[in-house]
Each structure stands twice: as C-alpha cells, then as structure tokens.
Amino acid sequence: MSQPVSHKVDGLTRFRVDFAYDGTDYTGWAKQPGLKTVQGDLLAAMTTIFGPTENDFGMRIAGRTDAGVHAANQVAHVDLSDAQLKRLGRNPNVVARLNHMMSEAIRIHEFKPAASGFDARFSAIYRRYRYQISDNFAQKDPKQMRYVLNLTYALDPVAMNEAAQLLLGLNDFASFCKTRAGATTIRDLKRIKVRRNSQNIIEIELKADAFCHNMVRSIVGALIAVGAGKANQADLKRTLERAKRVETYKTVEPKGLTLIEIGYPADSRLGIQAERSRARRTLDEA
Amino acid sequence: MSQPVSHKVDGLTRFRVDFAYDGTDYTGWAKQPGLKTVQGDLLAAMTTIFGPTENDFGMRIAGRTDAGVHAANQVAHVDLSDAQLKRLGRNPNVVARLNHMMSEAIRIHEFKPAASGFDARFSAIYRRYRYQISDNFAQKDPKQMRYVLNLTYALDPVAMNEAAQLLLGLNDFASFCKTRAGATTIRDLKRIKVRRNSQNIIEIELKADAFCHNMVRSIVGALIAVGAGKANQADLKRTLERAKRVETYKTVEPKGLTLIEIGYPADSRLGIQAERSRARRTLDEA
C-alpha cells in the first residue's frame, strides 16, 4: 500500500475498502451487540491493527445487506488519523493482515486511499444485485446450496423477464419494501433481467440507484409467482401501482441474493454525487 | 422412474445411484456410529422409503471419500427386493423423495435400474479427481472457501505440471499412500494435469484406475512444494522411487478435493470389468 499523501480532511485520511463475503453465517452486515456480523468482524480485525475506535473508524457502507445475503464486490470507507496509520509500523500490507485475522468468509480485495470527495455510500450512482434460483430443470449442485434458492417446480424465465420490465424506471416501490418511517420508497430501477444461464440456473439481475429494504427479495418473490403461472403481468402492475406493502407474494430466502457491484462516477464527480445524494436524503428525512 | 423388469439376481434388483455432495460438514462417506456421514444420511433416507435394512441395501460406492472431500459425480449401487420396491407405492419418484428428506448438501441426480453386470465399484475403469488451489495471484472468493485451498504465496503451475508428468503410468505409489495392511499401492495414473484456470485458480486434475488412501492429497502436497520452488523434479522422482510412505511433503487439506467422475466401460463390458477388478483385489488380499 502506498502511503497516503493527500485528501486529508480534518486530519483524517479516507480509505476505500473493497471486499466480498459469504453471508451464510452472519446476521447481516451491520454490527449488533452479541451477534456475529460482517461489520463486527471487520471492525474487530481493524481494531487489532489501528487500535481502539470510538466511532467505528467512521466506517460507511455502500450496500447494507441483510442476514444471509452475500456480497461479491462490496465497498466501504473508513477515516484514519495519522496516529492510527502510524500503528501500521513496518507491515503496511493491510489487506493481507486483515484477511489473516478474519474467517475466509470475508475477503478484503483492496484497502487504499480514496480519491478526493469519495463517500462509499453517497458517491454511489447505482447498486447491482443478482438473485439465483434453481428450478426443477437444473441438476442440483450441493456446492451452490448456500447461493441458490432450490425450487422443485418449473419456472418460465421468459415470462418472468417480460413481466419484470413493467417495473423499470422511477417508481414508488412501496409495495415491495419494508418501509422505514420517513424514508422514501421511490427508486429508479435502471435494469432488470431474468434469464436461464448455461448451468440452467435462473439469474435475476437488478440495477437501481438504490434499493429499499427487502425490495429485491420481494420483487423476486413476485416474479417467481409469474414464472410459476400463479400471477400475470396485470397482477404485477397492479401490485406496483398500489404502492403499499402487500403480503401477496413471498419475500424469498436471502441465500440466493448477492450484491454484485457498486457503481461510482468518474473521480471528478465523486464529491458532487455525494452532495446530491445527501441533499436527497435530507429531503427524505424532513 | 420406470419399473425395473430385468437384471434380477437372487430376487434382487440392482439400482445405480448417481449423486453429489458437499463434504464440508460430513465425516467422510462411510457410515460410522454416532457420526454424520454421507452414507449414514443416505441410508437413513432410504430406510424411510424402503423400510429397515440389515445389510445397508447391499450398498457399494465407487469412490470412497475422506472427511471434508466433495463429490460432483459419485456413483453407488444398491440391491432391492420386490418387497422393498413395493413400499414405493404410488410415489415412485425416488430422486425427489430422497432429496426432500436430506440436507441440500447431498443431492441425488439419478436412481435407476442398473445395466446387467453393473457394480458401482468393480465395474469402474477409472476415477477422476480435481484439487483446487488459490495462490497469491488470485482474488479470493468467499463463495469458494469450502472448495479451494487458499495459499498466501505464489505457485508456478507450469513447473508443477512438468514435474507431475513424472508420476504418470503404472507405479508403486506407496510414497504417497497411507498404506492399509495387505492392500496394493500399485496404481495406473493415466493423466495428471496442472493449470491455472480462467478464474486464476490452480486446478490439479488426476485420472487413475483407482487411488489409494490419501494419494491425491499427498501428490498435491508434493506438487505445491515444486510450485513454490522448495522441491524439484529430481526430488519428486526420488520420492516416487522410494516407494515408501514419506512425511517430506504435507498432505493438503481435504476441502480442495472433489471427485469429478467415475468412468465405466460400455454396458456389454460391465460384468467382465467387475470380474477382472475382483480377481485383482483377491490377489491383493492373498
């Protein structure tokens, strides 16, 4: 790791952390007292290197994930003081040291000084998730059991894909969200694609500016109903337009869900994007 | 499943069972009192369908695997009486019923009447295994943590592959086997190939008539020493020629090992092959 020289704000240097995890054995991302969480394990390892922290190193995450959900490419940032960085001593390979201390279920890919204006959460312009389902068409692979929802009946991915397109664009996704007081459920779904891959696994990929709580798993539940012939396009459209949480469709198991990518703009736009996202958030919470 | 009509021997119908498992949470294939094993779980599920058994349904396995070793395509046979088959009743879908009763860590792919002369173990003409290693070249994938040995140093797969070819052919592999009294350690290694795949995982693939106990994992340990520059071709050749168990090289962890394929001859040769294998085994044990 090269020693950071710039982008110090209030005496702190911001680092961008890129990492992956298998969420099976974790109670989600966010730290919770007494529970095994991804953030809890990461903070514990960082504390061993950088010393005790009172503010979780100012850590912020791009895509908060629920219990059992996986991440192939997650992004966080932390702010470290010169005193904390000094503790690196003669071994500045933070990636190797963190990975050595943690379970192989969490793997740090990069830990490097962030570009100016970078905020892991607020600079992000999109999040991309993938949900995997094995229907009765596929030969079941035990090595995929933690990452694929196994169904014993047939799904029609073409019908699912057609119906899915009705959800595209800027919509109030309240019907598919576990609402939080004061938080908006309006999201911009930029892409949704359902297809059967070469291993006969049905992949549902979704890309949006952001997702509200449970949104992917609720949409997948509705699309499974379509794929199994229990609902049609009109049903899905009606559900969306109701814009109120419904229990018509099952929120599917977390294990099939993986955060695939966090999208950021070019370095020159990181700060502006962060300001825009923050402003929107302030409006939400007003 | 079509009702079997032929190949009845001593009133029993032989079935071929094709299946896969993730061995992580099992104490190997073979049943052991009080331990969670693949065979133990399979027998329990079969007993629910076919009733109690005094001889484990005459079950025989093609490639017995150790604790923590996986199988992508394992083969076994069982012999069932008409009385046992009658218990299928109106639901002859044995595959679905077994899978429903077992953990997703074991998945039955096929359960069907065997061709005449078929013996899962003795009719087999080869076994193919794959061992996977991630060295410091690859970005670590938490979803592979149960199937790939993670190393923090670099390996040279080209050097490993070249050295590996020295092991080819009919050899006494005693140096790489945990010997069992009276059992031969002479094996015919038909193919061995080391390569870095498109995901930067080093794959070591071995094909032999059969493998003795610990053979793949001991060979992989020796090849890792070669790949890390700690041993050369001459060392490997000397080890093979010593033909006596050595502790020079580490027997690697089971988690990287997967049984990929059991090879059988054409149906017309199943019986003859079984007789040949049995005869050889009798010589071994004489």
Automatic annotation (TrEMBL), chains A, B:
The terms under GO molecular function for this entry are:
pseudouridine synthase activity; RNA binding
Q: Which UniProt keywords apply?
A: Isomerase, tRNA processing
Q: Which GO terms describe its biological process?
A: tRNA pseudouridine synthesis
Among InterPro entries, the record links this protein to: PsdUridine_synth_cat_dom_sf (IPR020103), PsdUridine_synth_TruA (IPR001406), PsdUridine_synth_TruA_a/b_dom (IPR020097), PsdUridine_synth_TruA_C (IPR020095), TruA/RsuA/RluB/E/F_N (IPR020094)
Cited Pfam families? PseudoU_synth_1
User: Where would I find the Pseudouridine synthase I TruA alpha/beta domain in this sequence?
Assistant: 163-265
| HAMAP family cross-referenced by the UniProt entry | TruA
User: What family does the Swiss-Prot or TrEMBL record give for this protein?
Assistant: Belongs to the tRNA pseudouridine synthase TruA family.
The identity of this protein, by name, is Unannotated protein
